[in-house]
Design goal:
Layout lengths: L1 H12 L2 H25 L15 H26 L3 H21 L4 H17 L12 H23 L4 E2 L6 H13 L8 E2 L2 H37 L5 H5 L5 E4 L6 H8 L5 E5 L2 H9 L4 E3 L5 H6 L7 E4 L4 H14 L4 E5 L6 H7 L3 E3 L1 H12 L5 H8 L12
Parallel strand pairs: 3-4, 3-6, 4-5, 6-7, 7-8
Antiparallel strand pairs: 1-2
Helix pairs in contact: 2-3, 2-4, 2-5, 3-4, 4-5, 6-7, 6-8, 7-8, 15-16
Length: 402
């Protein structure tokens, strides 16, 4: 129990959510600092905070690249919300780069970026165990990425091959200029500095527009549609994997029984962070319509329990109407997390010891309350004292004394 309390205390001290928000803060600081430093560059300052030790060209360059680092950190923060290990590595490197940028920019404003980065880095390192998921792109995501790369490759190779029919592509930088033409054409920016000089070159340019914009649109749809769906799901109380990834010290309610779980969930709805795992699709949809946090699946599925964060959970509650299923659920939960607090409800009072052997810390039997009511009706001894104890009146007697 002491180990469990220490683990909970540490989890509360450094939360993955806090780290994600710190990354977002560093990203915004990096963007803001870059913009401010860019506006100050070339104004003839006194050489920065270090009196000209850092060359002007370095300070100007880092002012521009700081903005890029900030946007990359925002992308990394999205990956951290999904628990991706690659996003953790990227964030760690980018935070270091942001701190270095803050030093090289050598302005009073960049000190905030350096301080924010130095605060974020140790907390990011401390919570590295929270970001362990590998990136497993779907077939649609792979296809969208391939379409973007393929469209850019098609435009670059084609423009380079037809460079003699384009005004503005040639010389030693022909390949880069062909790539530049492809990007500005596919993005529909079209600065007009590179122009086709023959009809078939104009036709080629139109194909670049169609393929480029189509691939970009597909890629944006694949990336942002799931994010929008997750936002709507959160607003409607429909929990997604993204919402669960950052849960810590939460309560897992495994299974659903109308005898106990229903009123327990009503009590939890006021503010406790929890996840319900139920293997009944109709009941899942019904509870989601009531803004309950529900995942559809088997409460004894080890992979599912790991996905809903049993390793990070503070407590597990098992209280359905089937003692056999509940005992298996308790056993599975205990094996996956030896330190978690498990509370179980035993429909049959004779199964209390079995639940304890399975790994439950506390077992409550509704049948015990029924026996107490019967004894109260028959004038049994100590019933009033026990009722006071169950209501919260601290007595020296335990339940076993009765």
């Amino acid at each position: 129990m002491e180990i469990h309390m220490v683990r909970v205390a540490r989890g509360r001290f450094v939360s993955a959510r806090i780290v994600v928000w710190l990354i977002i803060g560093v990203a915004l600081l990096s963007i803001a600092t870059g913009l401010v430093s860019t506006s100050l560059s070339g104004t003839g300052g006194n050489g920065g905070l270090f009196g000209g030790i850092i060359p002007e060209v370095v300070r100007t360059t880092t002012a521009y690249t700081s903005t890029i680092v900030g946007f990359l950190l925002l992308v990394a923060a999205i990956g951290l919300r999904r628990g991706f290990r690659a996003a953790w590595y990227a964030s760690t490197i980018l935070v270091l780069v942001a701190a270095i940028h803050g030093i090289l920019q050598s302005t009073p404003y960049s000190l905030f970026l350096v301080a924010g980065s130095l605060v974020t880095l140790p907390m990011l390192i401390r919570t590295r165990h929270r970001f362990e998921h590998p990136i497993e792109p779907t077939t649609t995501q792979i296809a969208a990425a391939s379409a973007v790369v393929g469209a850019q490759l098609y435009g670059t190779v084609g423009a380079y091959t037809l460079r003699q029919y384009f005004d503005g592509i040639g010389g030693d930088n022909a390949i880069f200029e062909a790539f530049y033409f492809t990007v500005v054409t596919a993005s529909t920016v079209g600065y007009g500095d590179i122009q086709p000089t023959a009809p078939f070159a104009q036709v080629f340019g139109m194909t670049v527009i169609v393929l480029g914009t189509g691939s970009f649109a597909a890629a944006l749809g694949v990336l942002f549609v799931p994010m929008v769906e997750n936002s709507f799901a959160s607003a409607l109380g429909r929990t997604t994997d993204t919402n669960i990834e950052l849960m810590e010290n939460h309560l897992l309610v495994l299974g659903y029984g109308h005898l106990l779980t229903e009123w327990i969930v009503d009590e939890l709805a006021s503010g406790t962070e929890y996840v319900l795992v139920i293997d009944d699709e109709a009941l899942v949809n019904e509870l989601r319509s009531k803004n309950r946090t529900v995942i559809h699946g088997d409460p004894t599925d080890e992979e599912l329990l790991e996905r809903v964060g049993i390793g990070r959970a503070q407590s597990v509650l098992v209280a359905t109407d089937d003692d056999a299923d509940d005992a298996l659920t308790v056993l599975t939960a205990r094996q996956l997390n030896p330190d978690v607090r498990i509370v179980a409800g035993a429909t049959d009072h004779d199964n209390v010891k079995k639940f304890r052997r399975a790994g439950a810390d506390i077992v409550v039997s509704p049948a015990f309350v029924g026996r107490m009511l019967v004894k109260a009706a028959l004038g049994g001894e100590h019933v009033e004292e026990l009722a006071d104890q169950l209501a919260g009146d601290p007595l020296n007697q335990t339940l076993d004394d009765f």
